[in-house]
């Protein structure tokens, strides 16, 4: 339908996040960006999340762990004149492809950078859906920490966990556990437990947006790390977080409570 | 169209976030929740964000600062049998109405709580759109801190800022400044600057999703607090955050950089 752009006339490059998997959580902006693209770059599972949207488009897949290759493919396709969407799950800007794309962009010569037309569509990140399905655990100041030490040294992660504990932040743990990384989550629990009550509510959200979604509420002391896998996000309340019926929430009304 | 529920048969209560103002950032789930409701509760400005969606529905407005009253209205309407949407901007779970709703729910007798059918729709929060329009500043571990000391004592806020600084978190500052709260932002800058370079990139995003949206990139040392108002969100990079051309991003590849 659209005229094929020439290399002198680069395509538009969209970096999009499609939410955690539920079609109801894909923003219209992200959907339109995919619809306007001829080429999609992504991990196969994320492209599959698009369902019918991904049809009739050239798919460029690369495995998990090949984020640099996917970013380079997206840059090259756009420079070749293709309208390209680099597809993440969640929010492209939160533990997803936007950061890697800019890391790779920074390696390109200025003349290439200047020719590119880059746009980013915000999306809904896993912690937000976990929170929505559990109540309002992120209702006051919070932080996110990825427990993956593939790119970040464990000392940096540990420093952040100590800071989060001291600052009494609600903590969203991404990449909490995998078969090869099985001790970090328990270590994080110990750091947080030194600063907040043993009965602090914890939310474990697995397979969000899929048929087998499971959102479990437990306590910092009692939750079972073995129930957590790579597709989970774990939210740990702060010292004020409360459970009521089946809900967990973090109040903002500190002043009322303490006066 | 739908049968009016009786008080024995309470209405469905949705807590929804409509994003920062752009129709393209309203999730289908949030839109459907509003469409399924007969009654909308919210601050007038947020209901206006809904545009045509808000038409043909009973509007229950309350002023900024009357969050408790809005939460109570939503609970009462649902208990009276009305299908009700409590409308926030952004993500209902992040500095918005979900937390207040549960604070008020906890004050209700068990028989009322058990009759309620509560659902929460996640949305896109201001920091995510600010990040998307600036590059990928939230590309690694980050935290959010509200600088409003209306509900939270300043000592708690200050403790969080020190923790965020020590943990080298990217920091998203919400409610950064108002006419009556004009010194907190500069104080936050001083705390962060003690732990990270003066040229750390800072993103100031104002009036997101509106015609006069403005996303400005500056440095921790040089940014002008007077450019920041109540409708702004401020993102402060961590020690690794970089600027390239007009973009700001925080790389995840610590290991690569340091090896």
Q: In words, what does this structure look like?
A:
Two copies of one chain form a homodimer. Chain A has 259 residues and is an alpha/beta fold. Chain A has two domains: 12-124, Tetrapyrrole methylase, N-terminal domain (Cobalt-precorrin-4 Transmethylase, domain 1, 3-Layer(aba) Sandwich), CATH 3.40.1010.10; 127-258, Methyltransferase, Cobalt-precorrin-4 Transmethylase, Domain 2 (2-Layer Sandwich), CATH 3.30.950.10. Chain A is 31% helix and 23% strand. The first copy, chain A, contains nine helices and 13 strands. Chain A has helices at 28-35, 44-49, 67-79, 97-105, 110-115, 126-134, 154-166, 184-193, 254-258; strands at 12-17, 39-42, 58-61, 84-88, 117-121, 135-136, 142-146, 170-174, 201-206, 214-219, 232-236, 242-244, 247-249. In chain A, the strands form three sheets. Chain A has a five-stranded parallel beta sheet with strand order 3-2-4-1-5, with helices on both faces. In chain A, strands 7-8-11-9-10 form a five-stranded mixed beta sheet, sandwiched between helices. In chain A, helix 3 packs across helix 4. The longest helix of chain A is centred in the first third of the chain and has 13 residues, at 67-79. Chain A is elongated, with a radius of gyration of 20 Å.
